[in-house]
């Protein structure tokens, strides 16, 4: 089974909304082992939809349509498909009853065009709509499967998860299991990572290896197919070991984890507290940390010391340090980290100072960064960075490096 | 000119990312008067991409490709297009220099595959990449336009706005000018806004009026067409006046401005300083404020006082206040705002305290928020909010309300 998703709706082509349905369905189809080869978006136009269906039929066996099941003139998905594949539409009594009840409940008069929503392809499997009026359906002929789903994500998503997914799984003849696992790396560029494991990528077949870079991180998705779930897991594990031997020092987490999420996990599992002194990052590290619920047990507070005065007045950085080394220095980063940790009596103190740009500062280039890290009972660590990019990207990657150094040195 | 957008990337078909580029480009093409008839997504596969190009050529005159311009083996957009339309790729010296400099600056070794990013279609118009390495391009033959843009939105969006848009406008034969202006509102819901100007929306033709709600704000985009730029401006101005008479009190800015951007403009134009005390928002307000370059003249520092101890130790909130009113109270918000302002000797102090959830706190519901605002020489203001939504959305909207109150009361 090879899938294509056709979204119908001029609002997508006008850029008024994003096609999140395609992402949602693709993700779940991938997990079910059904490869998606194309997404198509077409407007509310019968001729163009018909052509899109013909193209899809020539290259895919499962075509999933999203949108165009509503009551208005624009909603022409069902009519167009019915005509194209030569199947009649018939009234679905149960859906009609639900629609009538909906209007009674809302104390509104049902206009005649709402009957249209209860019309379904004859002999299709009906997918109930628990969050709206138009039912979905799965229709099957000798050559293709046609699945029709409503456009609003709040109707489509539960419909697919509750009914659509199982309807498809019932049709899959092969009982292969697909398992996938994402390995998350930091501190290594995409090109370098691929160079390190080029032979593994070239030889891939089962499991497959797909790299994806974003926001200074690189992910590798390993996907294995097997008749046995256990064997699929084993295939992934063997490949993971092989990759870890090459670039394991950059691996920080799996699947949906994040660098800050790993820091939170570490703080919680070891019952440790942290405090934060931010100059360069201006509160970004604290903001991201406090986006995690329940973090108040591990984080009491921090100081944003943007000016030298704030560094002295709020954080007691010595005038001498600022005079001799400057605020953008290993010495200042170390003092900031130690002082915030002592001030708030936490196990860890971390600090960020540097030049986000666009202009240099203290004669230091944009992208010059010092991170300070103080663990109770240990000498402070400091880490220099030289980052390229925009102000935002320098700040964003600085906070990621902060997480990375905590993870690397916490258990050292 | 009729457009089609082809996104290349298996990560889209695996549902790992959403195709926001298609939305972004569609929206801007619509404003430029170029209709988009199809979006297509295809994986990192040369044969399937070639077929997608052939289909697109049969139905569109402008084909915009997004993604696949990077250094890895997966990035096959340029090669496939070059082969398909019979044009050579050549090294773009300027791009190559930029890539080399990037690696020198980041102190990383440039692997050989990065050269690939500097290869461009011969005779194409080059679109500079100010936020990444791979340049974009616009190539034109007798029958079609081919525009190639990088996949990451943070590279694609500025490239299109700075260079791609003009390159296309130069090719459009009709000399009508399209002008648009965005009015930005806060403190009014989308439904209420639409009700207030329902007749204006219903009567629209030139200028058109498009409402768009996102992240607690509502935008109205006014777009006028005319042979004369001056007349187009006049059409927009007349409509803007009409709208302002109805809902002008909620208007806070234009076009790409933001609430925080307006706060920064106000601080700069009046040469005022601000300090920040954050509990609920955990540093988010400071982080957003310091995303603006040059803000160090107006912002010295802040305190993130997440725990009651930090409120007392770092900010000297009185124990008595915490005992009698609690941390989530008008009294605490007022003390936080006054104390941070006095501590850092600024003109303005602002504070945030509340319950972000998921659990209630101090017997107060999730979404209970107090914002404190202290101007030098005035009694402090405090503002209660009761917000619905997730932890992130409560925090995000709280920072927006903070900006809104500063803007509203600064000149009062």
From TrEMBL, chains A, B:
Pfam families: CinA, CinA_KH, MoCF_biosynth. Residues 4-170 form the MoaB/Mog domain. NCBIfam families: cinA_nterm, molyb_syn, PncC_domain, PRK00549.1. HAMAP family: CinA_B. Belongs to the CinA family. This is Putative competence-damage inducible protein. It comes from Bacillus spongiae.
């Amino acid at each position: 089974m090879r899938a294509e998703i056709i979204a119908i709706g001029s609002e997508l082509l006008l850029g008024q909304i994003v096609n999140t349905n395609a992402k949602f369905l693709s993700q779940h189809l991938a997990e079910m082992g059904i490869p998606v080869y194309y997404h198509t978006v077409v407007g509310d136009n019968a001729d163009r939809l018909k052509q899109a269906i013909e193209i899809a039929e020539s290259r895919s066996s499962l075509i999933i349509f999203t949108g165009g099941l509503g009551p208005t003139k624009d909603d022409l998905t069902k009519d167009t498909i019915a005509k194209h594949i030569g199947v009649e539409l018939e009234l679905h009594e149960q859906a009609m009853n639900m629609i009538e009840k909906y209007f009674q409940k809302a104390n509104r008069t049902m206009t005649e065009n709402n009957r249209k929503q209860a019309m379904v392809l004859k002999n299709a499997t009906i997918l109930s709509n628990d969050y709206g009026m138009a039912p979905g359906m799965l229709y099957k002929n000798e050559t293709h499967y046609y699945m029709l789903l409503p456009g609003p994500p709040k109707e489509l998503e539960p419909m697919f998860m509750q009914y659509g997914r199982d309807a498809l799984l019932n049709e899959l003849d092969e009982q292969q299991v697909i398992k996938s696992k994402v390995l998350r790396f930091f501190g290594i560029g995409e090109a370098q990572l691929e160079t390190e494991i080029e032979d593994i990528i070239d030889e891939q077949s089962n499991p497959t290896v797909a790299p994806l870079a974003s926001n200074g991180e690189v992910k590798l998705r390993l996907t294995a197919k097997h008749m046995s779930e256990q064997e699929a897991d084993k295939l992934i594990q063997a490949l993971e070991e092989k990759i870890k031997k090459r670039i394991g020092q950059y691996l920080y987490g799996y699947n949906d984890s994040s660098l800050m999420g790993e820091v939170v996990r570490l703080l919680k599992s070891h019952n440790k507290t942290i405090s934060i002194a931010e100059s360069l990052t201006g509160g970004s590290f604290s903001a991201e940390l406090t986006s995690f619920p329940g973090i108040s047990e591990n984080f009491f507070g921090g100081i944003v010391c943007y000016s030298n005065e704030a560094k002295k007045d709020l954080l007691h950085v010595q005038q001498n340090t600022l005079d001799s080394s400057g605020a953008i220095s290993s010495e200042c980063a170390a003092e900031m980290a130690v002082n915030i940790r002592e001030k708030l009596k936490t196990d860890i103190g971390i600090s960020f100072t540097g030049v986000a740009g666009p202009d240099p500062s203290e004669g230091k280039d944009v992208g010059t960064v010092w991170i300070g890290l103080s663990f109770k009972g240990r000498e402070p660590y400091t880490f220099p960075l030289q980052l390229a990019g925009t102000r935002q990207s320098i700040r964003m990657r600085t906070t990621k490096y902060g997480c990375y150094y905590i993870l690397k040195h916490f258990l050292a």
